[in-house]
Amino acid sequence: MNQVVMVLTIVATIAILVLIGLILSVIVLWVRAWAAQATVRIRDLIGMKLRRVPPQQLVLTYISAVKAGISITTGQLEGHYLSGGNIQSVVRALIAADKANIELKFQQAAAIDLAGRNIVDAVQTSVNPKVIDCPDPVKTPTGMLDAVAKDGIRLLVKARVTVRTNLERLVGGATEETIIARVGQGIVSAIGSMASYKNVLENPDAISRKVLDSGLDAQTAFEIVSIDIADVSVAGVGQIANVGAKLETDRADADKIMRQAEAEGRRAMAIATEQEMRARVQEMQAKVIEAQAQVPLAMAEALRSGNIGVMDFYRMQNIVADTAMREALSGGGEDKSEGK
Fold this sequence. Notes:
Tetrahydropterin Synthase, Chain A; 13 helices
């Protein structure tokens, strides 16, 4: 029984010493918070120690919030820390928003921070709008947008977009890359609708106004303040400046090649038809010769069968000779010999 009492006494002594050590470790923070009129209960500080939340970081952050007039509790800060958030960034953003008369609640700031956005930079950008280049010079080697007007002249354009962070759409809103892509598309489309490149060079503000009125910042984390055409020029030496003329030339060359191919096809068809007709003439001549060869055979058969007599045959020969003589006298025979 005495041994049990001794063990319990030792355990109780150790527990008391641990509790005293915890109180002593947080008493300094409690005094600092009390002196700054940012009261923190000692049991809350001990609970932070047990939950492995750094009391010093949390208390100092809480003191800065209270001194800045931000209504916040240590429980909210501790909960945000345990969720993986950055309590110092959230408090700094709340203070900056309050000084700039921007409405920003702790829940909204914590959500933005947990979403992976830089809440401090977002508030600063909301106060002081920043300028981004379009197109992105890092991703575009030339640093210029390529657009073509209706008259076929190719233009190189560079724009500067002034944006302000929209805190209400920061969570779930599109990033700067979407703004750059939309503005670039809008500029190319606006230039493409211009009748002449001269209109763009004379009045580049018309392009920026048309793009700005398109509502390109919808569903993004930013609000477009202005779009300014920083540079616009016609494509220089070594580049295709008149795209329309180049397309017309290419189209004419293609039409020429097609017409040449069609003419060559017709020529080949004509040659083939001529050869076919010559072959048909030769075929008909062969048939004529074959028919003429059948005449003596028919005469011999007629003589053999008694259908005609010898005198009839001689009379026929005389008629043929008389006909040949008449043709010779009239010049037909000469023409015939020449034809042969």
